[in-house]
Amino acid sequence: MKLLVTGGAGYIGSVVTRLLLDAGHEVVVLDDLRTGHAEALAPEATFVRAPIHDAAQVLTRGAGFDGVLHFASLIAAGESMIRPELYWDSNVVGSLALLDAVRAAGVRTFVFSSTAAVYGNPTELPIRESAVKAPTSTYGATKLSFDMALTSEAFAHELAPVSLRYFNVAGALLRPPVAIGERHDPETHLIPIALQVAAGKRDKLQLFGDDYPTVDGTCVRDYIHVEDLARAHLLALDAATPGDHRIYNLGNGNGFSNRQVVEVVREVTGHPVPVEMAPRRSGDPAALVASSDLARSELGWTPAKPTLHDMVSDAWAFYQEHVS
C-alpha cells in the first residue's frame, strides 16, 4: 500500500512509519517539524516538509494513495487551555483541510491518532468506547471534534476511518538503524521528566496532588508501550471498513499511580528521584484506565510489553544514548 503519514517525524508517528516500512508499505511522511525531529525520519520514507493544511499538495501529486494515518497535532493539554487558538487551528482546521484533501483524492482508509482525553473525568472504570465523552481540556475537545467529523464523513462519503484512543504512551523503539523515543520540548510527560531527574538534569520531580481517591493518593494512569501502540495501527488498516467509523481504546487495562511510576524509575535507573508534592492541577482526573477488549477482539491486538518495567527500561536506554 502507498500510505501518507502526517506527523511522521513525531514520537508515535515515526515508530508507526518504521513498522509500516518493515511490513513492505510505501510511505510518504508529511511533517512541518514544528514538534517532530528530522533524525527520527526513516530514510526509506519520502519526506515532505509542510503543515497538514497543505496536505492536498501531496495527496494529489503522482500515483494515488491507499490510505492516510494522521498523527499531526498539538498534544499538551495544559498549553491548550492557555493558547486554545493554536489547538483549534492545528487539530481541527488543519485536520479538516486534510479530510477535504482525502475526499478529493478518493482515499478511503483513514487511521486517526485520537486520545483518552475525550472522556474527561470518567464515571466508571475501566473506560469503554461507549463511555460518556466530556473532555476537560481544549486538547481533548479538539480531538473529539475531529472524531465526530470522521463519523459524519463515513456516513456521507463512505470513508473508512478508524480512531485509536491512546492512554499514556511510554517506552522506545530500540531497533536499528535509529532508536526512537520520547523527546518533547518542553517535556510534560511523567516518565521522561522522571528520567531527567534521575539523570541529574532536573533537581526534583513535581507530583500534582496526593489526595486523590486512589491507592496512594496520586493520579492513576494506564500506560502502553509505544511499540505495542504502533502495531495496532497496522491492524487498524486491515480493519477499516467504508461507511463504518470504528473506534478503539488502546491501553493495558492496568493502572499505575504516579508514585508507582517514580518507584520503577528509581529501580530501573538506580538513581534517586527526589519528589516534591504540588497542588492538584485543574482538570486532572483521579484515574484513567482503559478497557481494550474491543481492540483485542476485533483487531486481534495484544500488548507484547505490558509491564511498566519494560516501558521505563526502554525509555531509559533511549535517554542515555540519545538525550542525556
Q: Which key features would you list for this structure?
A:
seven-stranded parallel β-sheet; 10 helices; globular; four-stranded mixed β-sheet; alpha/beta; 324 residues; 19% strand
Question: Would you summarize the structure shown here?
Answer:
The protein is an alpha/beta fold and 324 residues long. The chain is 37% helix and 19% strand.
Polypeptide structure, described:
The chain has helices at residues 11-22, 56-59, 77-82, 84-105, 138-157, 190-198, 226-239, 258-269, 293-299, 308-322; strands at 2-6, 26-31, 46-49, 67-70, 109-115, 160-166, 168-170, 205-208, 220-225, 246-250, 255-257, 275-278, 287-288. The chain is an alpha/beta fold and 324 residues long. The strands form 3 sheets. It has a 7-stranded parallel β-sheet with strand order 3-2-1-4-5-6-10, with helices on both faces.
Q: What would you call the shape? A: globular
Strand order of the biggest β-sheet: 3-2-1-4-5-6-10
Q: Report the order of strands and helices.
A: EHEEHEHHEHEEHEEHEEHEEHH
- Which regions contain 5 or more consecutive residues with pLDDT less than 50? none
Secondary structure class reads alpha/beta
For the record, give the distance between the C-alpha atoms at the N and C termini, rounded to a whole number.
38 Å
